[in-house]
Design goal:
Layout (H helix, E strand, L loop, with lengths): L1 E3 L5 E3 L24 E4 L3 E4 L4 H7 L1 H10 L4 H23 L1
Antiparallel strand pairs: 1-2, 3-4
């Protein structure tokens, strides 16, 4: 979740599905800075959901905010993230499965 206060300051929070679904030794994307959540008060904020391992591989939230820093709209940045995800993660799975 990302939010903006009355002064225009950004904040964010994210969580996992909790201990009920946690496998021993697994670290999800929520505690990894830039994966599950990234906030830059000057540029914008992004939060991700889905399979944490995949979000970590492309550092999804950080990538979206950095693309916004480069001038991409939030929608364009998300589309570029999808392309990066598809080209790195999904193609790898199709080759190895």
């Amino acid at each position: 979740m990302v939010a903006m206060d009355s002064r225009g300051n950004l904040g964010g929070a994210c969580t996992t599905s909790g201990l009920a679904y946690k496998m021993h030794g697994r670290v999800g994307d929520s505690p990894v800075i830039g994966a599950g959540l990234f906030v830059d008060n000057e540029i914008g904020a992004a939060a991700a959901t889905g399979v944490g391992e995949e979000v970590i591989r492309v550092v999804g939230s950080h990538l979206v905010v950095e693309l916004m820093r480069q001038g991409f709209s939030p929608t364009e940045a998300c589309k570029k993230l999808w392309n990066a995800y598809y080209n790195t993660v999904l193609k790898t799975y199709r080759i190895h499965r």
